[in-house]
Amino acid sequence: MKKIVAFLLTLSCFLAASASAQAPKKLVVLDPSIVEMIYMLGADDQLVAISSLQFSKIWPEEKTAKLKSVGTYTKPNIEQIVELKPDLVVTSFHSANVNESLAKFNLKTLTLKADSVDDIYKNIEEIGKITGKEQKAAEVIEGIKTKFASFKSSGLKG
């Protein structure tokens, strides 16, 4: 029995190490909402650069203001992104046009869409998987669903 427990513990440690080794260490994120998700999940240590918004700030302002900007999310600077050598560049429909350019430099990209609330849940889940924060992603999603349910049950209209 002790050997089985020891084997299972060793296996779980190996699997956890493998999963964290696969998580990208350097993310460039070209969508402000995805940047916010990464902070919500506590994976901001993986962010090396973000795109900027022309007329507003990205939450949490005090932290995102310190990150390198690689242009706007509709017109990111490819050269700056390539220089950073990110493990993954996360784009949205606003910046998906850069995927082909980034592929020429052998950079991996992930394009996320947010056409519905379900898409947002999927995005949080996907970012959780990518960053090794699956449990936190599940908690965030559950928290959002709980808030939506409380709004619906409150009888508010509009």
Strand segment count: 5
Helical element count?
7
Helix and strand sequence: HEHEHEHEHEHH
> What's the mean pLDDT score?
84
Total domain count: 1
State the fourth-level CATH superfamily.
Answer: Nitrogenase molybdenum iron protein domain
The radius of gyration computed from the alpha-carbon positions, rounded to a whole number of angstroms, is 18 Å
For the termini, the CA-CA separation is: 60 Å
Fold topology:
Layout: H1 2-22, E1 27-29, H2 32-41, E2 47-52, H3 61-64, E3 68-72, H4 78-84, E4 88-92, H5 99-103, E5 109-112, H6 117-131, H7 134-153
Helix pairs in contact: 2-6, 6-7
Structure description:
- This protein has a five-stranded parallel sheet, sandwiched between helices.
- It has one domain: Nitrogenase molybdenum iron protein domain (Rossmann fold).
- The chain has seven helices and five strands, in the order H-E-H-E-H-E-H-E-H-E-H-H.
- The chain has helices at residues 2-22, 32-41, 61-64, 78-84, 99-103, 117-131, 134-153, and strands spanning 27-29, 47-52, 68-72, 88-92, 109-112.
- Helix 2 (32-41) packs across helix 6 (117-131) and helix 6 (117-131) packs antiparallel against helix 7.
- Strand 1 (27-29), helix 2 and strand 2 (47-52) form a beta-alpha-beta unit.
- The chain is α/β, with parallel strands linked by helices and 158 residues long.
